[in-house]
Amino acid sequence: MDLTKVDKILANHKNDKSMLVAILQDVQDEFRYLPKEVLNHINKSLDIPLPEIYDVSTFYKAFSLKPRGKHICSICMGTACHVRGSPVILETAKTHLKIEPGQNTPNMQYTLNTVNCVGACAVGPVIQVDGSLYGNLTSMKTIQLLKKFEKD
Amino acid sequence: MAKRLLSWNDLKALQKELTKNINPKARWIAICEGTGCRVYGCLDVSKALEQELVKQGISDVKIMHTGCHGFCERGTLMVIHPEGIFYSRVKPEDIAEIVEKTIKNNQVIERLVYEDPQTSKKIPYEKDIPFYKFQKRMLLGQNQKISPTSINDYIAIGGYQALAKVLFEMTSEQVISEVKTAGLRGRGGGGFAAARKWESSRKAQGTPKYIICNADEGDPGAYMDRSVVEGNPHSVIEGMIIGAYAVGSSDGYVYIRHEYPLALHHITEAIKQAHEYGLLGENILGSKFTFDIKISRGGGAFVAGESSALMQSIEGRVAEPRAKYVHMAEHGLYNKPTVLNNVETWANVPLIINMGSAAYGKIGTENSKGTKIFSLVGKINNTGLVEVPMGVTLKQIIYDIGGGIKHGKKFKAVQTGGPSGGVLPADKLDLAVDFDRLTEAGSMMGSGGMIVMDEDNCMVDVAKYFISFLQEESCGKCVPCREGLKRMLEILNKITDGKGEESDMQTLDDLSQLLAEGSLCGLGNTAQNPVLSTIKYFRDEYMAHIRDKKCPAKVCKALIKYQINKDKCTGCYLCFKNCPSNAITGQPKQKHEIHQDKCIKCGICYDVCKFDAVTKE
Prior knowledge:
The complex is a heterodimer. By secondary structure, chain A is α+β, with helices and mostly antiparallel strands.
């Protein structure tokens, strides 16, 4: 694992302990998750107790301690999407991908997540795949969308 | 590198320079590039328009790439000035015709003109469309005139003049007094008087003092703040600098949700520009006042929107709220005096200074002044962001502006105030919307989410949705919140599974009281609102689940069944082919059957059947 990248992130934040959340965000942007080695490295470099690092890493939904799939599919569970049927969309996605939210497909093509509102309520139900939003979904359209990303 | 503005005169001169060549008759086109319109593909529309103008050799038409216009239902939105012709649902393939007919020959294209769903009348001009006509867009209206990443656009429409006025003509006491007279109340939820926070912080001991903008808009179904930060970030920055001057603060933070990448990008860019222009940093506009803003990204925790939890998060810790007897105004971020307001509150500050508190105070009701932005979503025809003076009725918002309920269905309830709010039924539609009236009715203003529900929505399911949301987002510090919400969710699950008992209603009520009294922060002590308000107004629906084991709205999965009507089924195979859980069996040309043990109730069979053979009961 290339820890020089981590040192660079730490230097960007002036090795400031109080920047832990921001540092972990940058680490996650770099590695797509928070690798154990990196957390140990932050523990030693900044002298932050490991339990405190894990406390923060597991508290915020944005962080993942496990590697994530090639495509991150987040189903919006905001209120507007809920009243327009997002629970059915989630059920369909779970059945189609055969995984629960927070899990990866065995081929690591997909990570399935839920998100509490992306603010695109006009086009709900909404799914976010790799940062792009897809709206006005039905169960059928959900399966078509997921199939599209299965190939690339 | 832009020239630093060293005085108010420099700012005035720049504004004059930027506006001197503006011809009011010149043609320009505003394209909405907010997050909503991006889902509809507005960036492709913009690109197509740019290319077409080049192709046709038209160089005197300016394209303004703006933030959110609010009418998200109809994206991609395009407004052609100076007439104000409003085109919606614009696609790249429409562009050639728009350029040929409208831009070159001043013709209106009927096909792209908005049609009022209630009167079927075509309305070509933006100002005549009911969605816009009945609003008072003091904040959002600016979005349509500027490019969010251009500080010059903001200065051209009078941006940063309020700041200059404050710096050179007012004392900090006068600023606070002005905000107090205007009656500005925090738009983030509680509706606390902004000037009172500012005043206590100004008087408090300790340096540095901090100013925070809460852009961690966590209420699901609400996106007002995102659109303001995305569409007009400088208005928020200007408000914060004015607040900092009033309080005597030198350091500010914008705490923003990581789920809003575009807003984050725009505010980052805006802060950079404000620096280059000398509007942030040392000696702002050549005055003695110094102030700077940093950005802190949220980590996806709803509770981090609570003020004390938010400060913990900025300090790099888990976002757990603390007791409120210690006031943030005196001991906030890093234990120093801190003023925290949300995006919309800050954006109102320059307006108050520019308009004067007397004029501002004339808008709204006695104790709720100014306008409020609502995100009008759910089962409504005109989904979008609406800005109205406080005191208009729910009916005006939902019917006059919102155009009524989708697909001609019947209105059932509107949920306001996010997870801490409640639902209001049809007989509350005449309620005047302000901070106090909503609270009296058992809901609250919250940050401004307004989720409209129709007859197909189950109120027990809605209560369950919010409790499930809150129990997941509870930080776990207070036992009544951590455990109480879990128990409430168990009970609601039991009811929606058809296993509820009548005594459950009493238990829900008991737990609600416990939550209200035994939790430290707003998440816990208002968490009972969705349950109590649905019980108050829709008790019958709970009883239908408990006594009759039926979900009248046909939402609760355990209580509904999809079946195939053998008389109508033609054996066309379509449902069989599309069922994701292999719950349907049958041979081609023969009757099909749904196996309930495998059915996930996704409704695909119901949607795809061309013979109405699938029934939902």
